[in-house]
Amino acid sequence: MATAQKYTRVAVLLHWAIALLILTNVALGLTAALLPDGTLSDESIRFVIDTHKSIGIAVLGLAILRVLWRLTHRPPPLPAEFPSWERTAAHAAHIALYVLIFAMPLSGWLHDSAWVAAASHPMYLFGLFQWPRIGFIMNLDPAIKNQLHDQFGALHTACSYALYGVLALHVAGALKHQWVDRHSVLRRMMP
Fold it and tell me: Which of 66, 100, 106, 169 is 20 to 30 A removed from 57 (C-alpha atoms)?
């Protein structure tokens, strides 16, 4: 495939870095959610949760870079053989992915900021430096924070299920075009 029909190296790197971090975060999130209380020491659970939060913030930062890169570097066009409905579906799926890739870490950050014990349990980004909570959430009345904590947690969970669904459609579409339609779309995003 010609270079003009591939994404840039930076776009490919950001795509796969975000994808791998999201998959890692899914595993960490499920690990923390599935463990019964008392299974691991409190310190082990905190490590899993803090790593999950750190990866979420990293995804948010990389997603910002990805959008800025996309705004300044035009992606390669879809193959001309794609019917218009498939082009529309592909664009809609990409928009949904971008929205959810931002919604996941933002809803998680809001959820964490509304945690009533957040002030006494600072969050460290990969254990290196303290990451701030969202100030106006931290300063709310504890009863309101507790209610928001539940609501932001539910939003974070709902976004995760939506992300799983859109991601499954994205992967299925790419594999369909690659193996059924015989369009080399996977090469566009391969290193």
Answer: 169
